[in-house]
Prior knowledge:
CATH 2.40.50.140, RNA-binding, ribosomal protein, 5-stranded antiparallel β-sheet, rod-shaped, Ribos_protein_bS1-like
Amino acid sequence: MCAKASMEEFEALLNESFEIDTPSEGSVVKGRVLAIEAGQAIIDVGYKMEGRIDLKEFANPGEQADLKPGDEVEVFLRQVENARGEAVISREMARREEAWDRLEKAYADEERVEGAIFGRVKGGFTVDLGGAVAFLPGSQVDVRPVRDAGPLMGLKQPFQILKMDRRRGNIVVSRRAILEESRAEQRAEVIANLHEGQTVDGVVKNITEYGAFVDLGGVDGLLHVTDMAWRRVNHPSEILSIGETVKVQVIKINKETHRISLGMKQLQDDPWDSVEAKFPIESVHTGRVTNITDYGAFVELEPGVEGLVHVSEMSWTKKNVHPGKIVSTSQEVEVMVLEIDSAKRRVSLGLKQTQRNPWEVFAETHPEGTEVEGEVKNITEFGLFVGLPGDIDGMVHLSDLTWEGRGEDVIGDFRKGDVVKAKVTEVDIEKERISLSIKAMDGDPFADAIGGVKRGSIITVEVTKIEDGGIEVTYEGMKSFIRRSDLSRDRAEQRPERFGVGDKIDVRVTNVDSKTRKLGLSIKAREIAEEKEAVEQYGSSDSGASLGDILGAALKGDR
Length: 559
């Protein structure tokens, strides 16, 4: 009976010892290194169980395993016994479980964790966080894109956990967040020691089209291209290079955004302070074309001082032409100062003012009546434009094309490129107009025909046509028309049919119209004039003599 009780107690103690000493699979247990053989560590995990682990599982990335017999280590028991009767254990899995516990706590407390980048994968890198492998996206490596991550490999450094999922085994970390935090602290410290107007030294870190970033010792400031020099700077690389140390002035500090604006030209004398003294109004200077736009060209008078030559002030003769067809960039030109606005830092310049007005020159060398020869440049509905000396044009109006007929009928006889001769009839310098006449080259047949004929003259004309309203007559080849009412003083004699073609009759000139090139003629006016003359010669209406007596006497006297 007593023996049976002892056996039961022994069995209970044995079972208890099994429960206490035998670890369960899938847990982390403590073990002791028994020996190191063939790159493996033989580890006793208790209950007479031994297992083997490759030494590399005990080493940090890029390091050798620091392990010797007798060391106690924690391992992960994957299987109590395999086919060879050994326990299947893993140091790496033990470290991973331990690491996940530690990392979850750090993630919850928003603490930094230490790790080392040990591999490159698509889109980023792998990081060992003391047993757990995390993903480091390429965008989270640094505040700026990193072309070569070699110097960062295997280096222990802090990381910030952005996201983790233990069930899926995913961890995402960021090195950039640590750098930005440190950078923000450093920036705040540096900015606190800066003030606007202060002159400091900096190193050019980066150059863009609009300026350069200058390192002021932990904080970057922007040196805009317009603040590099008083003169026009097309690209910052013209005067700066990366790595160069420059002296700059702090122009503005934004305490909230930590943005710093810098300037270099502020450390130099402002050339605009002496512009009015150096470049008085109407003075002529030589400058260099720096920029060409649709509305004009900018000319540098001296470094830092530019003026605008508006397109309207570029040429006397080239109108509606792009400035680029008159001047070119870097060309040296002579300009006249037209206006200065120091407050707005503007200088208005003139290019054409340095040359004489071609219309003034033409007026001096070609007075009215001068014969000129030129090429037909353009044909319009109202006349011809003819090229003249001085690169200017003169216009021949339709009315100045021919003496006979209408200008509209003969303008079709002209073509572009035809060389024509004409006389200068008018030069208007203010309106920049020159009037020419082609018909004047042949003289005025009307003036030649009428000779000394003037209003009141008695001339003899020949009847060429009989019409109901009057008669058509010619005088020296010039046609005129006598209306029915002017055919006689006597209404009964105002009949066109009493005349025949070829009849020669004396008429009085009532009007000479050079514009319409017509003579006003009247038989009636001649008769009235003759009657008046007879009255004045032979008596007055108060002498008692009748008109018939006077005319009779006059006629007898003529005989």
